[in-house]
Protein: Glycosyltransferase
Organism: Rhodopseudomonas telluris
Amino acid sequence: MLPVTPEVSVILPVRDGQRWLREAVGSVLTQTLAALELLVIDDGSADATPSILAEIRASDPRLIVLRQEREGLVAALNRGLAQARAPLIARLDADDIALPERLTRQRDFLAAHSDIVLLGGWADVIDEHGAPRGKQMRPSPDRLRDTLAKKSPFIHPTVMFRAEAARRVGGYRAAFEAGEDYDFWLRLADIGEIAILPELLIRYREHGGSITRTRELRQIYSARLAKLASAERRAGRPDPSAALAAPPDWHDPNPGPFERDSSRLFRMLELADPARARSAPVSAIDLDAIGSQLPTLTAGERKFAQAAALNLLRERSDLSVSMRARLVGLLLRLGPLKAAKLMIRK
């Protein structure tokens, strides 16, 4: 029977997730913490997802299905936030599995630590068939704020956070496409403490639907903007990303002052795609965009910068001798050993 006020609301977005959906939903509905609701946001699925959800819903009213017409992940997450009735909200993805005591353990931890607004955990990695992959994701619970200032230490489907805090900071933001979770964690950390429960909470599935190069670059771009916005907030200044209603286009000829330097950098990083490296006008090859920000590049940005420089050397016979020399110099500055290995491999 549906509890009058659930202790935890679980938000699970899905689109065409029929393959693993039963297992994911079942892992929530069989938790040791029974006073829950599971909000599954169906983002316009065209497979058997709706019928699977209807079947499960008929036997367990704690499952609540919200349907939208392919509005995307951020819209789905915010729809779940808006409908959640519990004071605590947990996340799970439609291809992952929550371990039986996951919600109980996180609820109890948050009950004992009222200052914490965001709590993550650890994950066992499994393959598409559910078999262990022999590795675990164990982000360190130590010095979390230092880590968060550089990258996300949270595994998104392990987190539990306080509903009031999530709504106070405005939920997930569409402008940070592919990095909406990192931006959300940074804003939650502005108003409360953060922690990682050093326990295995879920089985995290790795499978063939790997991230594309384009999406990975967008993710890295969103992370950079999120860190810049966070630094401004920590300095007591207004959030420069507050006016962004959609993901910025780094090809925009008139970017705002907030994203201008990042857009310039990422127009170069996208040359990690050989086709783009071949077609880019010589006038658009702006090596200073990378060189001027070299000290601040993350590992992911360095990877794209190295690939972009190498592609230009390999794919472009029209570059001047001086430009080619600058590209070799840039590769060496990005990492001599890595540059040598890349050039040998190619």
In short: The first strand starts at residue 8 and ends at 14. The radius of gyration is 22 Å.
